[in-house]
Write a structure and sequence with these properties.
This protein has 11 helices and 12 strands. With about 350 residues, it is of the alpha/beta class. The N and C termini lie far apart (about 50 Å). It has helices spanning about 35-45, 60-70, 80-90, 110-115, 130-140, 160-175, 230-240, 245-260, 260-285, 305-315, 335-350, and strands spanning about 25, 75-80, 100, 120-125, 145-150, 175-180, 205-210, 220-225, 295-300, 315, 320, 330-335. The strands form 3 sheets. It has a 7-stranded mixed β-sheet, sandwiched between helices. α6 links the parallel β5 and β6. About 40% of the residues lie in helices and about 15% in strands. It folds into 2 domains: about 20-30 and about 260-350, Alpha-Beta Complex (Aspartate Aminotransferase, domain 1); about 35-260, Aspartate Aminotransferase, domain 2 (3-Layer(aba) Sandwich), CATH 3.40.640. α1 (about 35-45) runs antiparallel to α8 (about 245-260), α2 runs parallel beside α8 and α10 crosses α11 (about 335-350). The structure holds 4'-deoxy-4'-aminopyridoxal-5'-phosphate. 4'-deoxy-4'-aminopyridoxal-5'-phosphate (PMP) binds near residues 28, 80, 81, 82 and 182.
Length: about 350
């Protein structure tokens, strides 16, 4: 009998050119830049570029604790939420048990769990959303759980009952639940979020990032907020790389967080752009998954071929969602109106006209 073949982790492929001549609608970036106060703080921080950054990241930790109304020991700051996906998988729960993830989502959770030989079990989605009931039922047998909410690449979100069920299951089984809320700031702040459940004592950690709505993707900074004992474990792991969050990023994030007015304008402009783009999709007869975030999954035949042709022929970068295990769509970031029109016109040409 031949030995079982170990599945290869699906690696997140970001190998596209980094040129602004291309229309970048593939990485869910913000087209609104960052708060001018954050850019000014980053520029000032450069004056001390010869000095190592603060390893404890204490200014940002304190600011985030005030912002979330939690104790500072409930916050861990890291080099992007990517680093926190790694740190949580390395640190939390029963390490001899595989993690539970959903199929059809951000591949980072599974890639990390497989890379560290912890393993991952994937639960199918219920249509375009996380199946909260199935996830809650399965979680107790696993070492850790990862849920993406709002969901990448569908743009959907859990209901309050769904999120509550997950948190209750994590609590009952004492299995750490990581809720990746990378896109939460783009959504309506009244949407259910982990923040609403933090005082219940459940082993839950939310991951947030400054890369998306705060517009600081290049600086690489994100954070975790959750139960203090879990955060302590995450911090122990992060302390192996004490200077991984650079000085410029820390200064910019403190200023970005203080400028909630800017965040409000980003959220309002994003919602307006989403309405406009979906109306255009309707008008042109495309189907899509109704989104709450800054990207829309547009239904297409041959998403792989279209992704490649849009890039090669039109210089337009979008994501074939098959790479997430969510086939049949192109995920399109809500860039500028001009960029989105370029995408729509090119899509019309490629799918409607025989050129
Ligand atoms: N989680 C999700 C769902 C994402 O889509 C991304 C980036 N695209 C990340 C985490 C990582 O974000 P960052 O490391 O920039 O904070």
């Amino acid at each position: 009998m031949s030995a079982p073949v170990r599945p290869q982790p699906r690696v997140y492929n970001t190998s596209v050119p980094d040129a602004d001549t291309l229309v970048r609608l593939h990485l869910s970036e913000s087209p609104y830049g960052a708060s001018p106060a954050a850019v000014a703080a980053a520029t000032t921080a450069l004056e001390r570029v010869n000095r190592y950054p603060a390893p404890e990241r204490e200014s940002l930790v304190a600011a985030l604790a005030r912002h979330w109304d939690v104790a500072p020991d409930q916050i861990a700051v890291a080099n992007g939420s990517d680093e926190l996906v790694l740190a949580t998988a390395l640190s939390l729960g029963d390490l001899t048990r595989p993690g539970l993830v959903t199929a059809g989502t951000f591949p980072g959770y599974r890639a990390v769990l497989e890379r560290i030989d912890r393993g991952a079990v994937e639960l199918p989605l219920a249509g375009a959303t996380t199946d909260a009931t199935a996830f809650a039922n399965e979680l107790p047998g696993h070492g850790i759980g990862y849920v993406c909410n709002p969901h990448n690449p569908a743009g959907t979100a859990l209901t309050r009952d769904g999120l509550a069920a997950l948190i209750t299951a994590a609590h009952a089984g004492e299995v750490p639940l990581i809720v990746d809320e990378a896109y939460q700031e783009f959504s309506d702040p009244r949407l259910p979020q982990t923040r609403d459940f933090l005082d219940r004592g459940a082993p839950v950690v939310a991951l947030r990032t400054f890369s998306k709505a705060y517009g600081l993707a290049a600086l690489r900074i994100g954070y975790a907020v959750g139960r203090a004992d879990l955060i302590a474990e995450i911090r122990r792991t992060l302390s192996v790389l004490p200077f991984s969050v650079n000085r410029v990023a820390q200064a910019a994030a403190v200023a970005a967080l203080a400028d909630q007015e800017f965040l409000g304008t980003v959220r309002a402009a994003g919602a307006q752009r989403r309405r406009w783009f979906c109306a255009e999709l309707d008008r042109r007869g495309y189907r899509y998954v109704p989104s709450l975030t800054n990207f829309v999954a547009v239904e297409v035949d041959d998403a792989g071929g279209l992704q490649d042709t849009l890039a090669a022929r039109y210089g337009i970068l979008v994501r074939n969602t098959a790479m997430f295990g969510f086939p049949g769509h192109l995920r399109v970031s809500l860039g500028t109106e001009a960029e989105l029109l370029r995408f729509l016109d090119a899509l019309d040409r490629l799918t409607r006209w025989s050129d």
